[in-house]
Amino acid sequence: MESTLVNWEALDSLVISFAKSEHLIEDSSALSPPSSPSSSSSYQYRLLIRQIRRSIEAGDVDSAIYLLREHVPVVLDDHRILFRLQKQKFIELLRRGTERDRDAAIQCLRLALAPCALDAYPEAYEEFKHVLLALIFDKDDQSSPVANEWSERRRFDLAGFLSSILRVQLQAYDPIFLLTLRYLICIHKVFCRDRGISSPITDLTERLLFEERDPPAIPRESLLEAPPFDEVDIQALVHAVELTRQGAVDSLRFAKGDLFQAFQNELCRTTLDFSVLDELVHEYCIYRGIAASATMSSSADPASTSSRDCISPISDGEASINNVGSDGVHEINIDHASIRENGSDMHCSSERTTNYEDCSTSTASHLQSCSRRLRRSRYDASWERRRKRWRGRVDPLELSSDISITDKSNQNATPSALDASGHKCKEEKVFRNLSSFHNSSIIVVRKCEIVLEMKELASKGMVAELVEEVNAMDPEFFTLNPMLLFQLKQVEFFELVNNGNIQLALKVACTHLGPLALSNQDLVKPLKETLLILLKPNEDALRKGIPLSALANNLQVAMGRRLGIEEPQLMKIMRATLHTHNEWFKLQMGKDRFEEFLKIDRLKEVNAHFKGDIMTEVHADISVRGFSQSTSSSSNKLSEDNNSPSQASSNESLYDENAIIKIMEFLALPRAEAIHLLIQHNGNAETAIQQMFS
């Protein structure tokens, strides 16, 4: 799994779109188009759904009904929904236990619940008579016939059901990134469960994705007479989101036969923990340079300023990032006179060093001395503009609860608990801990800055400058990563050939590519292919090389591990889930119908030449390696069978899709087993079915 390739640029696009749609980062980004009015309204609708959901979960049905009347009155025209809301309101009024609330509950019965029960649905009047028993039996009586009506679980079921209805009514679907993440994790869990494999990301997926789903939206009676749906669509939905066949049919009815809308509806029923999700996305955005680090963008106090200035001294001609604007975004001060037009000598000389004796750690000094030529790419102002300030999830629904918690903590504070000396010692200890934490955070951020600078140079194809910078920072890096150096020099070679500088290109080949191939026999063949470019037109040269973006990503991972920067957990999730997605559909012997819709195909789009040269050791991880070995051994075992997936997939095209679906439907078999059965009976579905029942 560690060698699974992911198109991180495609993931960047999905993450940025999600972060903007949820207002987690600044909306004016150069990385993606500005938010459209429709996306803004979708965000407001999602907030509205969340507020209605929380009101019902808290037992405040009146607030939910008020919001529905104000914003989505058409939903209350459906008496099925109105009846369920009024019934829950009746229970909540009784739950409060006061005489006044009991009188209000009886009024609710007379004026709202009873009229609704007459025409909501056939069983509504019986439910109405049943819920009247709540007037007699206590809420704490678990043996009463209405114990389930008193259960607070009813709140969450109603809230989930209403969310499913409103999501479709308002077209307030989650961003594609969330749908993709849900889908990949669900397939990952199914694959690991069915194959008996221990997942290396279980701790993440369990915290991120809740097991329980919201109740499905029920189609109106008028939709029950919808024409028969294509069995291919029904089976696709059944296996994609683990539904029963009847559940898939109902979902298609509610979506009026639209398979992809039904698929979205079912995916959105699985809820995510947004606090965990936001942490994962924030970590990824910092690592990828999408968002500026909070440590570097926070407003400076005297202590933090001196520490930051010590770690990041600014020489003449460098771009200062220590000046923070009023909006929290760094201002860039550039001495343009010191920048040469060719951009080849924009670094400060080795003599321009600063005394680091005041730094809090030796690590900070080492980082500064190793990165003496950094910020070359910062002179491209567009790069800095792409790094946006992380706003976080500003949820207006949580403000009141935050205030109450703060007030409560202030009321519980007891100044007399500590004497003067003890309070002072505690303050000094807290200050030391905060100072240590701050310095540690600065060092981590500084390392990330170094890696991002190197990545930027690689993505621009500035190979000579990049190699010089890396060697100055860590002379052993390319010794440990010879493949990376070879690939970088390949890029330089192709660029020179493309520009007609054949002599310089040959010099690069003699000085770098040749010696690297001499010390590593695996590089001899790539070297020969590289030299063949000399015989071909110039315009073909760059197309033969590894994409700069992929090479930059590879460099970032390698340098990050070298500097002790932990890879974002979101990247681990994507590698693991995309790996199992590939393996799962090999077993299914078919193509994922939703792959393109969820942009999974783009996440897998990696240059074919790059696939052959990727360094698997970059992603080495003991626990992950065990998972990969388990999955690979399972695949190997399958391929040894006579009816292996690879063999069956070639035969699959000989069979009609309807024959496969017919066996799946009649015999309730998974797709792979249905194909194997067809193989045994020469593609005759009727014979296969008769044989099973004979």
UniProtKB/TrEMBL annotation:
Domain CTLH, chain residue ranges per copy: 45-101, 447-504
Family annotation (InterPro entries): CTLH/CRA, CTLH_C, Ubq-SigPath_Reg
Biased composition (Low complexity): 629-644
Domain of life: Eukaryota
Pfam families named among the record's database cross-references: CTLH
Ranges where the record places region Disordered: 629-651
PANTHER family: RAN BINDING PROTEIN 9-RELATED
Name by which UniProt lists this protein: CTLH domain-containing protein
Organism lineage string: Eukaryota, Viridiplantae, Streptophyta, Embryophyta, Tracheophyta
